Amino acid sequence: MMFNTKIVVVLRDDLAPWQCANVTAFLSGGIASDPNIIGKPYADATGREYLPLLRQPVFVFEGNADELKRTYDRAISREIAFSIFPNDIFATNNDDDNRGAVLKLNPESFNLAGLAFHTDAKIADKVTSGLKRHR
């Protein structure tokens, strides 16, 4: 099945493997807040139910700090809603502190570990142009 939208996660290319997994999980939570992209719950042969998943594939890209800033700027210029994960959040341990850390940051000097969004596929391609798929 082809989708006319894309879910995209962009990670900084120098993150440790545990950081990649952590940032992707956090950013996907922001994407999942859109009820239009959540599928239906799953059930196995015994009738046990499981939580729903995103209803379409997630494209994961990587880039250096400059490429993440460029991707951020492109998303802003196209007025795309997106989630962010500044590097500062690695030093916090709860949602309130995460928000507080972001509130202190100037977007011009973000040290982004990653960002994620869901938008029209053609727009997503333009925003991620020049990025490589995550390794």
Short description:
The protein has 135 residues and is of the alpha+beta class. The chain is 33% helix and 25% strand.
Protein described:
With 135 residues, the protein is of the alpha+beta class. The chain has helices spanning 17-31, 65-77, 95-103, 121-127, and strands spanning 5-12, 42-43, 49-50, 58-63, 82-86, 112-120, 132-133. The chain starts with a strand and ends with a strand.
Question: Which features does this protein show?
Answer:
25% strand; Bit1; 135 residues; single chain; two-stranded antiparallel ribbon; alpha+beta
Name of the CATH homologous superfamily: Bit1
Low-confidence stretches: none
- In CATH, the topology is named Bit1
CATH class annotation: Alpha Beta
What would you call the shape?
globular
**Terminal Cα span:** 25 Å
Strand order of the largest sheet: 5-6-1-4-7
- Give the overall average pLDDT: 95
